[in-house]
Design a protein that fits this description.
It is a single chain. With 81 residues, this protein is an alpha+beta fold. The chain is built from 4 helices and 3 strands; from the N terminus they run αβααββα. The protein has a single domain, classed as Winged helix-like DNA-binding domain superfamily/Winged helix DNA-binding domain (Arc Repressor Mutant, subunit A, Orthogonal Bundle), CATH 1.10.10. 46% of the residues lie in helices and 21% in strands. Strands 1-3-2 form a 3-stranded antiparallel beta sheet. 7% of the residues are buried.
């Protein structure tokens, strides 16, 4: 019997394999052929389950802001806030 690979498991595997352990919403939606809304809902459910997923922003050289997800432990600074 073949087990079904869920989007949740695919995202967790992507965080392990991706460069710098980050993944943008657009990358995830394109990679798994689902809507960005589906990715957002899945990440929200994972957070409710206790998975430590953070949303960060970076600015490109052209000044465009990009949000990306990262998996990991909260920083000491975040814990003390």
């Amino acid at each position: 019997m073949k087990s079904k690979v869920t989007l949740r498991n695919k995202l967790l595997a992507a965080f392990d394999k991706s460069e710098g352990n980050t993944l943008t919403l657009a990358q995830a939606a394109a990679r798994y052929k689902v809507s960005p809304n589906t990715i957002t809902k899945t990440v929200h459910r994972m957070r409710l389950e206790g998975v430590d997923i953070y949303t960060n922003q970076k600015t490109t050289k052209t000044g465009r802001k990009i949000s990306f997800y990262s998996l990991g432990k909260p920083s000491r600074r975040a814990l003390s806030a």
